[in-house]
Amino acid sequence: MKLSREKLAYIAGFLDGDGSIYVKLKPNSTYRYRFQVSPAIVFFQSQKEKDHLEWLRKIIRKGYLRQRNDGVVEYIIGDMKSIKELLQNLLPYLKLKKIQAQLMLEIIERKKQVKSPKEFIKLAEKIDLFQKINYSKKRIQNSIVVKKVLEKEGLLAP
Amino acid sequence: MKLSREKLAYIAGFLDGDGSIYVKLKPNSTYRYRFQVSPAIVFFQSQKEKDHLEWLRKIIRKGYLRQRNDGVVEYIIGDMKSIKELLQNLLPYLKLKKIQAQLMLEIIERKKQVKSPKEFIKLAEKIDLFQKINYSKKRIQNSIVVKKVLEKEGLLAP
Asked: Which residue from B minimizes the CA distance to A6?
């Protein structure tokens, strides 16, 4: 990623103001641990500011634009390699979303090392923590759901 | 204003994502042309992100924080000198709100030169244009209201 420091600082400011960093656990029976870890960095704008998101995508050179039915345009970066590279570059400039960025990098790193259902539950707990930071008032308990599913499927001792 | 290029780029990105640049005409009979030109740069955050706005205010060293009743915290820069200085510094880095920033600087400059009711109406037309950029669908006509008031008060020939 060859972006100037000013460009990186601008993107960090824009992400702090307008963007979102999140990670979801999606149920998917074809996955080894029955859930897909689905991280994303998303920027939102109204239709009339679509050009701005196109410009961002062009300089970041990752991700894609999606037109929602409600008129909002999303610029989504959803693959782990791109997210990791972008966040590592933005980290020195991020303020509001620095904690999310650090935790996301930790989750991406930890995911690579998961070798057992137990370790996957530890990962799910990190994701709980992540979601708690994003939605301060909600009680998040992905990890408990994951545990139950893995127990039910006989992948984990109750 | 002694801010590094990275800081300015960050602030520009944050303003593009989260902030607002606007100018209002407020009826005020104590003013020469019966309206006060009231410009502002505002950043909005929820209560839990108040620290971030405090940090911004500390580095920009202008404006003040205001706690709204609905839980939103506003960081407002409302005096023309500060607005002018900040926007001149941000201009090279702004993207989405560059047009608003340029037009705001033009309005601030033009306001100094107003010497007659007619010139004030020209200024009000610039403000119409500004508001049209911010709220694309609304029909804005400050200048027509200003004209009527100035005519009614005998400051301008009908």
From this structure: B6
Number of domains in chain A: 1
Chain A residue with minimum CA distance to B53: A96
In a domain, A157, yes or no: no
Which one of A6, A16, A136 has the shortest CB-CB distance to B93? Answer: A6
Three-state DSSP at A151 gives helix
The residue whose two tokens read 């991406």 is A108
Q: What residues make up the domain containing A32?
A: 5-152
Q: Does B39 reside within a domain?
A: yes
pLDDT digits (tens, 9 = 90+) for B84-142: 999 999 999 999 999 999 999 999 999 999 999 999 999 999 999 888 888 766 777 78
Closest of A50, A46, A43, A38 to residue A10, by C-alpha: A43
Instruction: Look at A11 and B12 and tell me if their CB atoms are within 8 Å.
Output: no
For residue A17, indicate whether it is catalytic.
yes
Domain contains A158:
no
> Alpha carbon of A31 to those of A26, A36, A117, A123, A140: distances in Å?
10, 7, 12, 15, 22
Q: What is the CATH number of the domain that holds B12?
A: 3.10.28.10
Summarize pLDDT for A64-80 with one digit per residue, the tens.
999 999 999 999 999 99
Cα dist from A77 to A57, A92, B12, B28, B53, whole Å: 9, 19, 22, 50, 27
Cα A83 to Cα A115: distance, rounded to the nearest angstrom = 22
Q: Which one of B10, B19, B93 has the shortest CB-CB distance to A93?
A: B10
Domain contains B157: no
What does the block give as tokens for B144? 């027509």
ipTM: 0.89
Inter-chain contact B14–A16, Cβ cutoff 8 Å?
yes
